[in-house]
Amino acid sequence: MSWRVIARREYRDAVQSRVVWAVVALVAVMVAVTSLVPLAIPQFEANVLSGLGAATEFAAMLVPVVALVAAYLAIAGERESGSIRVLLGLEPRRGTVVLGKFLGRAAVVVVGLTAGFALAAVPTAVAYGGLPVVAFAGIVVLTCALGVAFVGLAVGVSAAAATRGRAMTLGIGAYLALALLWDLVPQGAHLVVEGAAPAGTVPGWFVLLQGLSPSGAYSALVQAVVHATEPSFPGIAGAVAGPTPAYLHWAVFVVVLALWTALPLLGGYATFARSDLG
């Protein structure tokens, strides 16, 4: 059994269990609603890019949940039920199993996010009188990349965990640390280094620290995409005083997302490869 067969099975099972359709519906509704929020703010000159910006801020919190829920039981669930031994009887290479599980669950998340954004594009375009196709497409690609990064994290956690409960605990911990609480790291560092909370302009290292989480890297890359299509919007280093440091190039944050995808997956595989499945 190859990784392709495992990936197809994972995707098929998700479609049959309606996970994909739940993701599509959730993403479509939430992206559409949040993109319209600027229109409801009095005395705010809302435009479609500010609407998309609002949607991506919410996506940075929503997408990790979607990805973790879709993938945290990919291996741990089968380990606890014992069905993983049947699968390993067909494909004894555990690395192939981990890769197939990752690709199958990643496909579920990518399809769900893409379809959800496509549906949300309709009310957004109607409300604002149009949609910047290039910026919107870039945001969709980046949102899918964020989802894939958290799928890699979730499958890595699932591979390392022996039980559903432990996988859930690790997944919740990862979400809290990387999606909700990460901003406290640069805030605290700024307080220690500069002696005050950030206000107005900030040092380049502060922006870099913000972007070292998956959600932070995603937000930085969204800024880069929007700035590229509309220069009046601030880019990654918009709040940095003085020249832009080389380490704030958009490619750095692409690498950050790639590492958050690959390293947890490799770490989970290393643990899974040494595990005694009884």
From TrEMBL:
The UniProt record lists the keyword Ligase: no
One Pfam family matching this protein: ABC2_membrane_2
Domain of life where this protein originates: Archaea
Coiled-coil stretches noted in the UniProt entry, renumbered to this chain: none
Cellular component, GO, one term: plasma membrane
Transmembrane residue ranges: 20-41, 53-75, 102-128, 134-155, 167-185, 247-272
Keywords for this protein: Membrane, Transmembrane, Transmembrane helix
Protein's name according to its UniProt entry: ABC transporter permease subunit
Species for this entry: Halorubellus litoreus
